[in-house]
């Protein structure tokens, strides 16, 4: 059985390009032997860190009711991640970076001793043996050309995933969505084709 954890982070609802592309991938993955768990970080956002919750999310013992609730949420998110074989992330570009809801998810799952650890050789990711498929949607062209210098979306996600040990990452980009209807449709069609090929490839399975 292959377990797929799907994270949507757009807050645009049905108008979201990344959400539509992720759904097309989920539909292709929905077959015998594949279990899909979906978490909507846009419609049902995870709380952002606060002075009260950050210490316990990072590993300190909870004391207040709010801290106990925050710790339970973070523990559940980490367990959900570790239990998955494939991670699918839908990430639109908001102001050159990722949505704050997706950042909040990473803030909850990045915990020393749980998803990474510090050693004499430096940080070491503990969430290994997984594949990630990241669907990026962008109004402009950022994978090449002058705007590549202000792409704080893909490099940030690559670093966050690698820090936890997830280095088998495929980025599927739908770019130039703001360049008019024809450019948008072509970008979405190309991304759907690429996602179809990924869905038909062999997926990692639980050990």
Give me the side-by-side strand order of the main sheet. 2-1-3-6-7
Low-confidence stretches: none
Largest sheet: 5 strands, parallel
For the record, give the distance between the C-alpha atoms at the N and C termini, rounded to a whole number: 9 Å
* Secondary-structure content class: alpha/beta
Relative strand content? 15-25%
Note the run of SSEs as H and E. EHEHHEHEEEHEH
CATH architecture: 3-Layer(aba) Sandwich
- Shape descriptor reads globular
* The CATH class: Alpha Beta
Report a brief summary of the structure.
The protein has six helices and seven strands, in the order E-H-E-H-H-E-H-E-E-E-H-E-H.
Write up this protein:
The chain is of the alpha/beta class and 207 residues long. It has a single domain (2-200), classed as 3-Layer(aba) Sandwich (Rossmann fold). It has helices at residues 17-29, 54-57, 65-82, 100-109, 154-164, 181-200, and strands at residues 2-8, 34-40, 86-92, 116-119, 122-125, 131-137, 168-174. The strands form two sheets. Strands 2-1-3-6-7 form a five-stranded parallel beta sheet, sandwiched between helices. The chain has a two-stranded antiparallel sheet with strand order 4-5. Strand 1, helix 1 (17-29) and strand 2 form a beta-alpha-beta unit. Helix 1 runs parallel beside helix 6 (181-200). It is globular. The relative contact order is 0.18.
């Amino acid at each position: 059985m292959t377990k797929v954890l799907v994270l949507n982070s757009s807050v645009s609802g049905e108008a979201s390009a990344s959400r539509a592309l992720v759904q097309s991938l989920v539909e292709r993955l929905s077959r015998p032997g594949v279990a899909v768990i979906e978490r909507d970080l846009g419609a049902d956002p995870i709380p952002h860190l606060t002075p009260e919750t950050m210490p316990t999310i990072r590993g300190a013992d909870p004391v207040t009711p709010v801290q106990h609730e925050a710790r339970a949420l973070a523990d559940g998110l980490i367990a959900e991640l570790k239990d998955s074989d494939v991670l699918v992330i839908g990430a639109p570009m908001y102001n050159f970076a990722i949505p704050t809801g997706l950042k909040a998810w990473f803030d909850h799952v990045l915990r020393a001793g749980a998803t990474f650890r510090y050693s004499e050789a430096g940080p070491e990711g503990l969430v290994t043996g997984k594949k990630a498929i990241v669907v990026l949607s962008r109004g402009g062209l950022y994978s090449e050309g002058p705007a590549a210098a202000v792409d704080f979306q893909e490099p940030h996600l690559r670093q966050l995933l690698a820090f936890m040990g997830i280095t088998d990452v495929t980025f599927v980009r739908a770019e130039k969505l703001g360049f008019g209807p024809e450019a948008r449709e072509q970008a979405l069609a190309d991304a759907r084709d690429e996602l179809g090929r990924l869905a038909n490839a062999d997926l990692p399975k639980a050990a």
